[in-house]
C-alpha cells in the first residue's frame, strides 16, 4: 500500500523554491577584505521544495507530493524543476515568472560549521492569486497541506483556509520567522513544527531543554494549534497533543 493510499490523497506543498549556493571557508571576510574560500557547490533548496523532496522520498512513488510555487525563467529555475521531477514530485503547478529571477540563497559555512544564510526570494516573492487558484483546484484530491512562511503570508493563509474548509490536514513549519503574524494563523494549523528559535519568537519562551520545550509547546496549543512538534536539534523533538 502506498503512502498516498494510506493517507487517502496527495500531499500538497505550497511554498518556496530556491537554488542554494554554498561557500565553505575558514571565516567570513571582514568589510573591504577579500578572503579565499575553500569550496563552492550548488543544490536545490527552499523550505517548500525541501518538504516536497522529503515526502517524495518517503512515499517512494511518483506523484504523491505535489508542489505549488514559482520560479524564474532562468537556468536555476529549470534546474530546480528538473531535479524535483527526477525525485518523482508532481511539478505541474510550479509556475514561471519571467519578470523575476528564481529564488537563491547564498549560504556561507565557516570552519566551525556555523552557517550564514542570505536569501533573495525572487519569483517566490511574487506568488499570489494564481498559486491560491492552483491549490484550490486540487484541494479535493489532497489529504495533507504542508505550508511554511517563505512566500506571501496572504497566499499561505488562503491556502490554509481552503484546506481547512475541505477537511485537509494542515501542517505548518513557521519558518522563516516573521515579525508579525495574522491572529488566525496558528488556529488554522493542525500541526506546527517550530525549532527552538521559532518557538521562542511565537511564544516568548526561550527553549533550551525538554522542560522549556514542553512549556512552549503547551503555549502554542493554547494559541489554537492542536499538535505542537518542537524540533530540538540533536536532542530530537518534543510533541504535545490532545492525546
Based on the model shown, name its key terms.
single chain, 243 residues, alpha/beta, UDP-N-acetylmuramoyl-L-alanine:D-glutamate ligase, 8-stranded mixed beta sheet, 8 helices, globular
Structural summary, described in words:
By secondary structure, the protein is an alpha/beta fold. It has a domain at 3-16 and 47-99 and 125-189: UDP-N-acetylmuramoyl-L-alanine:D-glutamate ligase (3-Layer(aba) Sandwich). The chain is 32% helix and 28% strand. The chain is built from 8 helices and 12 strands. The protein has helices at residues 3-7, 47-59, 75-86, 129-138, 153-165, 185-188, 196-203, 210-222, and strands at residues 10-14, 18-24, 39-45, 65-72, 90-97, 103-109, 115-120, 142-147, 169-172, 191-192, 227-231, 237-240. Strands 5-4-1-8-9-10-11-12 form an 8-stranded mixed β-sheet, with helices on both faces. It is globular. The chain starts with a helix and ends with a strand.
Amino acid at each position: 500500500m502506498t503512502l498516498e493510499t494510506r493517507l487517502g490523497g496527495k500531499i500538497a506543498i505550497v511554498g518556496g523554491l530556491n537554488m542554494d549556493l554554498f561557500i565553505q571557508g575558514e571565516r567570513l571576510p571582514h568589510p573591504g577584505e577579500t578572503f579565499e574560500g575553500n569550496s563552492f557547490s550548488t543544490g536545490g533548496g527552499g523550505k517548500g521544495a525541501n518538504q516536497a523532496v522529503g515526502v517524495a522520498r518517503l512515499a517512494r512513488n511518483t506523484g504523491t507530493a505535489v508542489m505549488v510555487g514559482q520560479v524564474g525563467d532562468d537556468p536555476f529555475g529549470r534546474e530546480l524543476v528538473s531535479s524535483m521531477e527526477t525525485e518523482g514530485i508532481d511539478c505541474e503547478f510550479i509556475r514561471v515568472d519571467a519578470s523575476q529571477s528564481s529564488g537563491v540563497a547564498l549560504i556561507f559555512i565557516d570552519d566551525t560549521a556555523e552557517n550564514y544564510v542570505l536569501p533573495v526570494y525572487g519569483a517566490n516573492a511574487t506568488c499570489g492569486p494564481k498559486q491560491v487558484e492552483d491549490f484550490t483546484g486540487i484541494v479535493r484530491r489532497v489529504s495533507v497541506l504542508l505550508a511554511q512562511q517563505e512566500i506571501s503570508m496572504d497566499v499561505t493563509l488562503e491556502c490554509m483556509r481552503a484546506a481547512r474548509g475541505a477537511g485537509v490536514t494542515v501542517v505548518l513549519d513557521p519558518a522563516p520567522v516573521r515579525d508579525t503574524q495574522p491572529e488566525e494563523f496558528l488556529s488554522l494549523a493542525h500541526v506546527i513544527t517550530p525549532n527552538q528559535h521559532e518557538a521562542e519568537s511565537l511564544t516568548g519562551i526561550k527553549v533550551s531543554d525538554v522542560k522549556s520545550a514542553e512549556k512552549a509547546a503547551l503555549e502554542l496549543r493554547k494559541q489554537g494549534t492542536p499538535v505542537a512538534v518542537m524540533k530540538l536539534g540533536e536532542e530530537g523533538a518534543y510533541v504535545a497533543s490532545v492525546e
